């Protein structure tokens, strides 16, 4: 397991766009109140390698890092493809998701600073589950605002959080001013990550001993998730004897993209090789429910609806966009992160969008061939990998395709049933 996180900000194809921080108070002032100082420093660090605190390393090892890299032989035979398809198995972690990688780190820094409560938002619930577990193991309270339609669709994720002592509230929430305002304007609002972020930050501002934890969209989160790409590089070389980026082969790293944390964690450590001429391609798979990277407008906007975050330049559906209440809660936000958008804008990152049925069909195929059931979000990455393999076969190439299996689907069975079987 890596003992250092890799800070890939220096490997980006250009400078990060300036943020617009025009609120009163400013987003920077809000962050100083609700975010542990160590995390603020990591968010803007220029160090290339940042040591992981030994307690965090040990905790991650106990949770199962490094996670397996699985060669999907049966899927390959079913497809009749010459591609070599690997799955990075983040679904095997205790909460069934890669989100635990940064939840453990952020909870550690919050506890070190003397914070008593962790407050956050969650979409499909995987981030909320990870924060709930990290809080309990750190001796902290947890308060989690979960997107309302996801909470209704995935009640067992709520049950998991509550078993750990977390307080779980639907978003938009009647416990916050922004939530009450949204519900007054749209009583049947299904909720989104934008509403949940607003609820969580407002709540954290009301409690000086609380820390607000971000599950995605920020450099500090991408930093913690570089464990993904670092482990993949080592496992491919030492276990499977594979090198990535062989000229003309069309190797791909594929991940779903919501806030971009699993995507950036996978590709971030490989950006330098790509810039140095490696024939390595990065692919983001998103949902047609919120197709920011494929259909959005490159513009300034906020990721929340309450005005607590700064305006960042990214691909956006607009702040008035309300995503439909489908089963891919982790991909349902209106504005993409500045970093992911920069990679897309500069041509480093490709993107595709899939409707819910297509993605879940890919998830079903993986279950029927490899026996692995992934979350709906991760199934989008599987769908993208199937297309990559088909195109490679048509072009007589045999690439290495690494798919990030970012989450388990066992708590998403109702969604799979409703979309694929309940006809």
TrEMBL record:
- GO MF: L-serine hydro-lyase (adding indole, L-tryptophan-forming) activity; tryptophan synthase activity
**Which Gene3D superfamilies does UniProt cross-reference here?**
3.40.50.1100
Subunit info here reads: Tetramer of two alpha and two beta chains.
The terms describing its cellular component in GO are:
cytoplasm
Q: Which PANTHER family match?
A: TRYPTOPHAN SYNTHASE (PTHR48077:SF6), TRYPTOPHAN SYNTHASE-RELATED (PTHR48077)
Which NCBIfam families does the record associate with it? PRK12391.1
Return the EC number.
4.2.1.20
- UniProt source species: Streptomyces tirandamycinicus
Co-factor requirement: pyridoxal 5'-phosphate
Quick check: keyword Amino-acid biosynthesis in the entry?
yes
The protein here is known as tryptophan synthase
Catalyzes what?
A: (1S,2R)-1-C-(indol-3-yl)glycerol 3-phosphate + L-serine = D-glyceraldehyde 3-phosphate + L-tryptophan + H2O
